[in-house]
Amino acid sequence: MIDFSSDATAIRDAVRGRSVKAVEVVAMFVARAHQANAQLHAFHEILEEDAMAQAQAVDAAIAAGRDPGPLAGVPVAVKDNIATRVGHTTCSSKMLANYRSPFDATCIERLQRAGAIVMGKTNMDEFAMGSSTEHCAWGPVHNPWDVSRVPGGSSGGSAVAATASLCGVALGSDTGGSIRQPASLCGCVGFKPTYGRVSRYGLVAFGSSLDQIGPLTRSVRDAALTYAAMAGVDVRDSTSANTVVEDPLGELEHSMKGLRVGVPHQYASQANHEQVNTIVQRAFDRLKAAGATMVPVDLPLTDVGISTYYVIAPAEASANLARFDGVRYGHRSAPRAGDTLDALYARSRGEGFGPEVQRRIMLGTYVLSAGYYDAYYGRALKVRRLIKAEFDKAFTQCDVIAGAASPIPAFRAGGMTDPLQMYLCDVYTVNTNIAGIPGISVPLGCIGVEGTDLPVGLHLQAPAMADAKLLRIARMVEKLHPEAARPPNKYATH
Amino acid sequence: MSTSHALTKEEVSHVATLARLSVPHEQLEVMRGQLAGVLGHVAKLTAIDVTGVQPMTTPFTQINRLDADVPGPCLELADVLRNAPVVEGRFLAVPKVLVDES
Q1: Parallel, antiparallel or unpaired: strands A117-122 and A75-79
Q2: Is residue A384 part of a domain?
Q3: Could you give the 3-state DSSP secondary structure of residue A145?
Q4: Does B51 touch chain A (CB under 8 A)?
Q5: Structural domain includes residue A327
Q6: Sign of CA dihedral A58, A40, A92, A88
Q7: What is the pLDDT confidence band of residue B3, given thresholds at 50, 70 and 90?
Q8: What confidence category does residue A40 fall into, taking pLDDT thresholds of 50, 70 and 90?
Q9: CA dihedral over A390, A368, A208, B57, signed as positive or negative
Q10: Residue B59: which of A100, A195, A363 has the nearest Cβ?
């Protein structure tokens, strides 16, 4: 039998082995999601009827003797910026409050083909802009370890759904850390694949050269399983890599002999929370005891990642979000006498977008405007190449680069009022996207902060296209931290 | 690089016009302060020597693929128009674009 501690592999095996029906699995998780949503607000929509219909199709396939796929009956919580035909796709924005996608994202098509079931859409920072899921038009999401704290962001709803076992697995998107940082703050696995590995078709674009879809899960194995079902070239995304996807599951359990872990001294900053540094050091000690070699590497541009990112990402966002004009879809301002088209655009956008989205559009428009383009955008793109080169050099000395995923554990809701302060939360994750390499946050267990247990994640980065190897190393870290499997008390799984 | 100059409220207003974003007058000063803060931080980029470095617009290293130019299946018009705020027949309705000057 399965329970809420079951991972996706166990659910899949039980459904395929006919010891439980997909409709029963869906009913179980939907009921738990409904119950928890009052406290946690992870979901914007729980799509009970649609999920039951999908589950019936999986059960029918099994009854007819057809292969239901490697994710048979696994309920998936989908971040609300990934297009689904079922339910709405709102990006947690008033702009898209009523938007219903006429198509499914490629990752959704592939997961459903693998037997997975879309069970609901999760809350996020509006248009994926934020690190706390407080910038959500439908209200903030709460951390299951302490509801007075944020879950991180922008994939906060998905991180909470995965951590509190409100779904089988969850999907997020990561432009500068939006999968890995909430995974670290909630205590689940969060994996951002190499840029181009998972098709972006159907992901509402934020920073097109940075965005990547990935899983948030309760185990590395589930992350590998979900990734394997989504990855691969797609004719509808010309930036999806046309190279063979290495199977991440085959050698997942095989520890790597002679593993070299790169440790940049820039990652052990004094600015990190003291206990974050302590628990990360403990992980390094365990890796060493398990036979890994720790290699000092130098990433001197770590510190300018945020500056580079906050030019490139808003620049791309300002162009991508130009499509929301109140004409084809989205919020449209009430008509006024003598309205011009330009006035309608400006009013619709001013009313539909929240403050953080407006700030980023303004920032992006500014750095792309005549007179500033070369000074900001042009220069940031050059620094981007230097950051990439710095990683390339470091990876000649090591297999992975490791450090804290976030400099601080989950902070109190409403505790960060200065936008710049919030941006600095992503100091260790933005460069992964800038370079286009894969990154994963693996739970290390909790630290005690003000009487509360708060999880911390170890961030591992690998060279582009080394996703399978990265997952294998992540699995080693996971095995060395059995205490990290403990769920938040209020969301016990037995 | 002219990042050291102070951002003015007039510039913020101009950028809002370029961005087709109506920003209430009383919000301009708040936004100016926040943008100036971020731009001040971004000025760290000026300290880095980028002489001779080529800009990197994407991490994607493969050359764009071209598809054969043949029509494929399209979305249903009704599905697409369902999301439009104002529709007239099979068209999207907008305010008058050309102003009558007579």
Answers
A1: parallel
A2: no
A3: coil
A4: no
A5: no
A6: positive
A7: very low
A8: very high
A9: negative
A10: A195
pLDDT band at B5 (very low <50, low <70, confident <90, very high): low
At A15, list the tokens: 């459904």
The correct CATH number of B1-49 out of 1.10.20, 1.25.40, 1.10.150, 1.20.1070 is 1.10.20
Hey, is the C-beta of B85 within 8 angstroms of any chain A C-beta?
Answer: yes
Q: Give A8-67 as a 3 state SS string.
A: HHHHHHHHHCCCCCHHHHHHHHHHHHHHHHHHHCCEEEECHHHHHHHHHHHHHHHHCCCC
In 3D, which of B46, B4, B44 has the Cα closest to residue A303? Answer: B44
Q: What's A34's domain CATH number? A: 3.90.1300.10
Position A461 confidence tier, pLDDT thresholds 50, 70, 90: very high
Q: Per the structure, how many domains does chain A have? A: 1
Angstrom distances, CA of residue B94 to CA of A79, A241, A321, B86, B87: 32, 39, 19, 8, 9
Which of A99, A331, A366 is most worth mutating to test chain B (most B CB atoms within 10 A of its CB)? Answer: A366
* Residue A104 within a domain: yes
ipTM: 0.93
HSE (side-chain half, CA atoms, 13 Å) at B42 = 30
